[in-house]
Known about the structure:
The protein is built from three helices and six strands, in the order ααβββββαβ. With 142 residues, it is an alpha+beta fold. The protein has a single domain (4-121), classed as Aspartate Aminotransferase, domain 1 (Alpha-Beta Complex), CATH 3.90.1150. A six-stranded mixed β-sheet has the order 5-4-3-2-1-6.
Amino acid sequence: MPELADKQLDPAMSKLIRECRSTLRKRFPTANELVYDNYNFLVIGYCTTERPSDCVVSLAANAKDVGLSFYHGAKLPDPHGVLEGSGSQNRFVRLDGVDSLSRPEILESIHAAEAHANPGFRGAGQGKLIIRSISEKQRPRR
């Protein structure tokens, strides 16, 4: 992946993003990885197609935090109350480290998001890395 994160993030945050990306790449080997800037966030989405709206989960990182975003999270069950956000569609969890992706309650949300995906992930093959946009004029990461 181009070193987008390294340009504006400290080394520890860049390392965390790379570790989380590696974990999610292994979890979703047939997903397309969409990389783009979303205002103050670097986003890496794991999608069943090349459309951002088909992202099942996304890493969203700014200078201080990394989160796991569920594009259709408002429709997901959340029996453990781990999903944050109150919008009509998106929910997220903050990741303290790559080990957060192995917590049972977060894995449960990831499984639910995958089951909800329409279309679903391909059964075989490899996804593509797609750089959607890198804004020339960006606001400083907060």
